[in-house]
Amino acid sequence: MTSAVIVDAVRLASGKGKMGGALSGTHPVELLAHVLRAVVDRNGIDPAQVDDVIGGCVQQVGEQALNISRTALLSAGFPDSVPATTIDRQCGSSQQAAHFAAQGVIAGAYDLVIACGVESMSRIPMGTSPMGQDASGPGIAARYPDGLVHQGISAELISARWKLDRDTLDSFSAQSHQRAAAAIANGSFDREIVPIDVVNASGDTVTHTVDETVRASTTAEGLAGLKPSFRTDAFATRFPEAPWQITPGNSSPLTDGASAVLIMSEEMATKLGLTPRARFHSFSVAGDDPMFMLTAPIPATHKVLAKAALGIEDIDTYEVNEAFAPVPLAWAHEFNADPAKLNPWGGAIALGHALGSSGTRLLTTMLHTLEATGGRYGLQTMCEGAGMANATVIERL
Question: Where does the sequence pass through the membrane (predicted)?
Fold first, then answer.
């Protein structure tokens, strides 16, 4: 069977997902085009050799509409002959893109493909795509007569089920910033981040290379002073068990970003004189209770470990997306996972969660972490809207 290997993986440094953020003055097509150009230029690839570009984007409306992956590759100067598609599996969109890309290589449909993702949350705010529309329909209303809830409430319910107190959430969140700040200081992200020239608020052109959302001074004590974000009288009545302790400090910030992973067969890598850095080992995707919404990384991880014939003790690093602090903490509790291996360079609470970009962003960071530590296996999983999750195991070569 043909192996799908990773030759390179790149990302932009995060920008705050609001106007005035480092990347907010740049059209999302150009954010994605920039990483697409970078991943082929760094490896001497003729873009005409790319069989497909598979991208993730959640808010596919406005500047991110009309198949942004295709628009971006044309902006990047790829030839007209290169096709592209843009998919939406909510926060796991570009992780799913990587699955489809690698599975296409394994099946023999592709020789060389790019998986990527983008989200500009400053220019296309979260919630824009269904704004003013009923995105569920009568069948959902009949099945869930009390109504589904948004992810913030789900995070509260997870905190209650796994008995996670506020101090635990805030301590984990502060650690995310501290780990990310240490990684920046140590140059750990230097190889994965692609510099991009942007125009700042003063009108000057500057080169953006450092994640804007990381706050090195963050402490659990400082986060303790933040007020809960999601408590209302109606929700408090409906969910009396909710502890009401999810705040901006233990949640991922709105973020702009883009990332890309160069995937090919081993035979193509040899033909092009390129060195594979890792191979895709196993994949899974799972669904779970959409009311809790954020718990699907647990069954997805059980599935992928079973497919890989590995135990959690065999995994050298885990990237579990920090949409909210309860998500990786509940996951770690279920697997008795080593906390030192969990998001060792910080996670989305510090580095940001640019929705459609996050899947390949996590994959990029996981690859570089394995290389820096000499680890063999990495496991990535992330919660997704409506109660889903992807999980991926890669093996460093």
Answer: none
Query: How many other β-carbons are positioned within 10 Å of the β-carbon of residue 232?
Result: 10
Residue 148 in tokens: 């589904």
Residue positions annotated with a catalytic role: 91, 353, 383
Q: Which amino acid is at 194?
A: V
Cα angle, residue 360 at apex, residues 379 and 296 outer, rounded to 5°: 50
Closest CA to 395 of 368, 371, 376, 367: 376
| CB neighbour burial string for 125-160, b if at least 16 within 10 angstroms, e if fewer | eeeebeeeeeeeeeeeeeeeeeebbebbbbbbbbbb
pLDDT tens sequence across 6-39 = 999 999 999 999 999 999 999 999 999 999 999 9
The domain 281-396: what is its CATH number?
A: 3.40.47.10
Q: What is the spatial distance between Cα 158 and Cα 329, in angstroms, rounded to a whole number?
A: 10
360 in Cβ contact with 116 (< 8 Å): yes
**Whole-prediction pTM value?**
0.97
Beta strands in the chain (DSSP E): 4-11, 15-16, 52-56, 84-87, 112-120, 196-199, 205-208, 255-265, 278-287, 317-320, 377-384, 388-396
